[in-house]
Amino acid sequence: MSTEGGFKVAVVGGAGGIGQPLALLMSLDPKVSELVIIDLNVAMVPAAGVAKDLSHLEGKCKVVSLTLEVNVDKAIDKAGDVLTGCDLVLVPAGMPRKPGQDRKDLLKVNADIAKGTVEAVAKHAPKAVVALIVNPVNSVVPAMCALWEKAGLDPCKIVGVTTLDVVRANKFVTEITGKPAEIPVIGGHAGTTILPLFSQDPAGRLIPADQIPDLDRRVQDAGTEVVKEKNGKGSATLSMAYAGARLGKAVLMGLAGKPTTECAYVKSSVHGDLSFFASTVTFGRNGVEKIHPVPGSLSEHERRRLEEMTPVLKEEIDAGLEYAKGVQ
Ligand code: NAI
């Protein structure tokens, strides 16, 4: 790898709704020289087909694939050939929540999926940054960090992807003000734990205070807008792929020696006794280089929301840590 690139990136769940467009966007990044598409043999499209498709795009990026057998314990653990040398592993592999399934059930299913990936990366590519898209991010990230630490690795390499909340907040502010925006979104990545800080951006500050609560709620519930219009046939995939690629590119910029900031959900001590928190993070040569504090100049609304969501996020972090405790 040089300062200009030559990075190897894997997308686990790369044949899925998010995975395919995410793989496309990453393959277009000139810093990526090799892209690995990993998915199950029951995926809607074979991973090999996605890789072949992308391999016809101009450019130097080599695209390879790995197909895992479903229900084979630790199938991904055999992925040494393709994972070795990876600099970044993006993980949109997981199930969406089904009707009647509570958050705890979803955590178990998706944490089990993420666990296989994280253990395999720990073994074959321990220097890689692992970006977890799979929900519930608020709990899966603490769970995977705990496992990563158990393996003697640096938990700062594991990053929860919350970029879609930033992208949505930016878009909604631009729709209202006509101006570009860069709204930090802090806290977590579900419901009220998503806290957009409109006060921290010049365009955000143009929005009258009485409109902020509705806009705040719209950012929290934006995923539902997509699910509704897709008529229950999926959730955000294209915007999520865009957001995941935005985060992935920031990580690669950092690895290439050009420190870059994005919001992300990471192991942190910036807010009270919460051990995980989304805030502005600077990515550098080793992954997360600096976790920026919560700005001191929050609005009254933001201050109250932060206080209200803290116990909610704490409970979701604890659920993840509890999962990790039960893992051999
Ligand atoms: P999808 O079902 O279209 O794709 C998931 C892919 O993961 C499938 O191709 C499946 O075969 C694959 N997969 C499942 N288990 C695997 C394993 N053990 N190893 C490798 N691949 C595996 O789902 P979609 O829409 O792409 O969503 C994926 C995840 O992303 C869900 O958990 C969803 O909740 C989450 N999500 C996260 C967002 C965020 O902002 N962080 C936003 C939207 C979705």
UniProtKB/TrEMBL annotation:
Its EC number is 1.1.1.37. Gene3D superfamilies: Lactate dehydrogenase/glycoside hydrolase, family 4, C-terminal, NAD(P)-binding Rossmann-like Domain. It catalyses: (S)-malate + NAD(+) = oxaloacetate + NADH + H(+). The keyword Membrane does not apply. Residues 162-322 form the Lactate/malate dehydrogenase C-terminal domain. It comes from the Eukaryota. NCBIfam families: MDH_euk_gproteo. This is Malate dehydrogenase. It comes from Prorocentrum cordatum.
